[in-house]
Amino acid sequence: MSRSERSPLLLAGLLAAAGVTHFAQPRQYDAIIPGALPGDPRTWTYASGAVELALAAGVALPRTRKVAALATAAFFVGVFPANVKMAVDWRDRPARQKAAAMGRLPLQLPLVLWARSVAKNGEGRA
């Protein structure tokens, strides 16, 4: 299997793993839900986990890959405020935790670009 054939499956695996952790360990996600969002943070945690699982399925399937990968790029942009909140909230934590929170911020750009690349390379494939 070539690198271009593996890339969508790896992205789908990342999304699926993240989606599962939203249900298996929701408290860690509840804590980074921006307070400006209405309702209970747990609802947002479960909703974002469900979205990640749906995106994973869409990216894994060649027929829906392009649209799902573009939606994934938008999703990564949309969750950026939660990563900012985490970085701000964790600024006084031990160095390792602070570094992990800060490290998530620049990681969003490669994730967006990866999803866009999967969408572009997924065009016309069935």
UniProtKB/TrEMBL annotation:
Query: What subcellular locations does the record give?
Result: Membrane
Taxonomic superkingdom: Bacteria
Segments traversing the membrane = none
Pfam family membership, one: DoxX_2
Key words of the record: Membrane, Transmembrane, Transmembrane helix
InterPro entries to which the protein is assigned, alphabetical: DoxX (IPR032808)
Q: According to Swiss-Prot or TrEMBL, what is its membrane topology?
A: Multi-pass membrane protein
**Where does the UniProt entry say this protein principally localizes?**
membrane
Record-given protein name: DoxX family membrane protein
The source organism is Streptomyces spinosisporus
